[in-house]
Each structure stands twice: as C-alpha cells, then as structure tokens.
Specification:
alpha+beta; 3-stranded antiparallel β-sheet; about 15% strand
Length: about 260
C-alpha cells in the first residue's frame, strides 16, 4: 500500500523522518530508500507500507509528478499548503527565531567586553553598547561612563544580520541558505573594527604623551566576557547549519541536472 509523504529530516545525520498523512515515521537510507536522489528535507516521496503498517520502501517523486499534483490542486481550488509543508515551515521558523532571539538577548543584556578604567574601576559593556561607540566613531568615549551613544547604522546592520537566517524561508534558492552566515560575519566585522579602533586610540595617546595609555588604562585592560562567547557560539551554529543546507541543496540540484541530461 503506497501513500504520498514528505521527508522532514536528513537521514545522513542519523535516522531520517517522514511525514505521511499527519504521522511521522523514522527510517534509514540503507534499508528502504529506493531512489538515487538523496533524501533531503522537503522532498516529496511515495511510501510503501506492508500489511502491518511498517515501512517497506520509499521512492522519491519526480518533479513532473509533483507538478501535476500541484496543477490539480490549483485547478480544484485547493492552493493551501499541505500539513507537512506547514509543519516544515513552522519548525524552520521557530528554530531560527529561537536562535536569533538568543543572539539579540546576548547583544542587549549580557556583558560582551569588560574594561578596567583608571579611576572608575571595572566597566561592563554589552555588544549593543559597543555598536554605539563604533557608530560614534570614538572609542575614547568609553572612558566617559555617563554617555551611552546610539547604535545608529551599526545597530541597523546588526538587525539585518539577525534577519539573514530567515531568508531561505521566503526565497527558495540555494544561495539564500548562505544568508545564515551573516550573524557570524557581522560579529567578526565588529571585532575587527574594535581592534582597529583600539590600535588607533593607543597610537594617538602615545604620540600625545597621554599617561592613560602608558599605564593600566582603558585600552590595555579590555577583555571578552560571557556575552561574546555565547553570541559567537550561536552565530557559529547558524553558519554551520546554513553551509550544510547550501551543500545539500547544491548536491540535490546537481543530481537533478544529471538526471535531466540522462533523460535528454
């Protein structure tokens, strides 16, 4: 008995997962997969069950068959997404939302850099506050504990970076997966700018004979804190996930092109 289903989880990273008529079924590639096409999340398949309701075989559905089903759905006025498609989209959205929300919370509330000032003791700065000092283009303002510059353009770039992992949900192109690298790239860019600004500040203070730079001053007493480590870990997670999805999409596209050339 064959039924139409959809792959929910990549079986190359452990047991795969199918959605058939609202029910989920785990499976292994080397036992019941009957196609040369790799099993990728979202792939439409025909699932064969034995008399006891166990999985007996899984075959990928060709794009022509999928297109005919979609055409029939439109012709009958049923253009709504299937439950499996809705589940996939919602699961992907929630996963990305949780990661992006965690990143934003780290940036806003957790200390990213600790600075020991000469006269005011220790000063903890969040990542968002650092963006404010970069936007003001003056690292020396960090010694003024009463100021808190607006993040401005740097804050806007940070929000765009957080939105990057959501792009594959709205743009069905394999290159869209690479947008998940944006959070890590943004953190790397900010780190580079901080180091460059510190070096410029030290050079200017030494040339001016400022005692703050030659003793245990602001720049020499800066160090990373918990917020930096957590946000970097989350950004690396997004980058690795996006790279993996891009490679899978590229592999699937290549396999599809090879099948088309053979058919021709």
């Amino acid at each position: 008995m064959a039924k139409r289903g959809r792959v929910l989880r990549d079986p190359n990273q452990g047991p795969g997962l199918l959605m058939v008529e609202g029910r989920q079924y785990p499976f292994l590639m080397d036992r019941i997969w009957r196609s040369e096409v790799p099993a990728t999340p979202g792939l439409v398949v025909d699932v064969d069950f034995d008399n006891h309701g166990n999985l007996n075989g899984i075959t990928a559905v060709s794009k022509s068959q999928t297109g005919r089903c979609e055409h029939d759905a439109v012709r009958t006025g049923s253009g709504a997404a299937s439950p499996s498609e809705a589940w996939l989209w919602a699961n992907g959205f929630l996963m990305r939302f949780a990661g992006s929300a965690g990143l934003l919370l780290c940036w806003l509330f957790l200390s990213a850099v600790s600075v020991r000032l000469a006269f005011f003791g220790r000063l903890d700065l969040t990542f968002w506050q650092i963006l404010g000092y970069l936007n003001a283009d003056s690292l020396r303002q960090v010694t003024d504990v009463t100021t808190s510059p607006d993040a401005g353009a740097w804050g806007f770039l940070g929000l765009l970076a957080l939105a990057g992992p959501f792009l594959p949900l709205f743009w069905k192109n394999r290159w869209a997966h690479l947008a998940g690298i944006l959070p890590l790239s943004f953190i790397g860019l900010v780190s580079f700018r901080i180091v460059a600004a510190m070096q410029a500040t030290v050079a200017s203070e030494i040339s001016a004979g400022d005692g703050l730079a030659t003793s245990h001053g602001t720049v020499h007493a800066a160090g990373m804190d918990l917020g930096t480590y957590l946000s970097t870990c989350l950004a690396i997670y997004f980058a690795v996930l996006s790279a993996k999805q891009f490679l899978v999409a590229s592999k699937t596209r290549k396999a599809g092109l090879e099948r088309s050339e053979k058919a021709a």
